[in-house]
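Because discrete structure vocabularies remain unfamiliar, we turn briefly to a single example record, giving the amino acid sequence and backbone structure tokens:
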Amino acid sequence: MATLLRSKLSNVATSVSNKSQAKVSGMFARMGFQAATDEEAVGFAHCDDLDMEHRQGLQMDILKSEGSEEGAEPPLEGDIHYQRDGTGPPPPSASKEAQHGVHFVSFQGMFVLGLPYAILHGGYLGLFLIIFAAVVCCYTGKILIACLYEENEDGEIVRVRDSYVDIANACCAPRFPTLGGRVVNVAQIIELVMTCILYVVVSGNLMYNSFPNLPVSQKSWSIIATAVLLPCAFLKNLKAVSKFSLLCTLAHFVINILVIAYCLSRARDWAWDKVKFYIDVKKFPISIGIIVFSYTSQIFLPSLEGNMQNPKEFHCMMNWTHIAACILKGLFALVAYLTWADETKEVITDNLPSTIRAVVNIFLVAKALLSYPLPFFAAVEVLERSLFQDGNRAFFPNCYGGDGRLKSWGLTLRCALVVFTLLMAIYVPHFALLMGLTGSLTGAGLCFLLPSLFHLKLLWRKLLWHHVFFDVAIFVIGGICSVSGFIHSLEGLIEAFRTNAED
């Protein structure tokens, strides 16, 4: 009984905390921050939810055993898992969309810093792509959620799938029932690991450009940053880190205002004549990947929609967040480029005067280091679930012992993943190239290609002709942009490897 009482008190405290977070999260959502990519990260919070559900599952076993005894009281409502059919009440974490929103805002802020560089090589066409990517990602997000639902025997629309992986597996069934899910998992792991690498790269870049007089190279700064991040390998959940998410988001919001304020102070010197309609054929495809990567959130949308208190508002939320995000990103990129024109660097804060650059960059480095655990923990969760914990189909033994503790070799694998992100950051210290490659490879695939393909596959009988036209057009255009951007980004990476090898 004492255990149940403590659980009830804990649930009440959690509910109060979630309500306060929901107000702040809703404020940011209305200001245009999307709910999950970094810049950028709704789904990363989902991994903490998995950990929470695991612990609640263990607690449920205890409660069931106690409840089965004669005279025992039934379990409290807060300890019963939420059922999709509505037969069970939601758990204490039912308002998880608040945490998702905060984490998503944290993830989306950093990579906006690369958008002015995309305008450098794309001009007005780059601005058009920022708008076009917002429209397409909004549309594909909606059709992806539509793939979660089907009509039952009574003609009612019910949710029969819970994740991107479920949708992919449904499209490949019955011949290859797990192939689609594995493809999505691979794409998700690549994107998450590349996000971790980008955090290390941007940390080294910002510190090196903030203190150019110190005898410390960018690679050395990256090593120092990784040393700070090594404890991430010991994380069991993200509760400690998530407490800093809102603070990081507020800090980055202030930094964006400072950058825009500085640009506005130089409005008389804006180089409007530098913004043209021609494009750099070699580097513009990389810019496409940068822009797409700043919108990648489709992988997290099923979790977000499933945790909304009113899923019917999902379409409205998608419309307003993408409109606001498009306006904010477009203005930020244009204003920053007009200020520095051809001198625009891969990370726009490197263009700031030395008097304020160091302060701004230190805050950004702190945000990058505190944001790193989110994609890292998510990548570890996907790897462990798909390779080590998939029952009899697992490729390797479980990383955890019978007592739930992480085995030594499992910890070694986590440390190896941290070291891998460092090695990539050292050998390819190019923020724009890595963003372009990730956006072209996994971003375009997860945001453009797969949603339109799944929509045609699962709902083609109910689609109107204009929906079919949009899906086919998005698939073709997305495929062309993906292949073009990937080839040019890969060429840039190969050249970078050669340069580093010569050095």
In short: Residues 1-6, 12-108 have pLDDT under 50 and may be disordered. The first strand starts at residue 149 and ends at 151. The chain is about 70% helix and 0% strand.
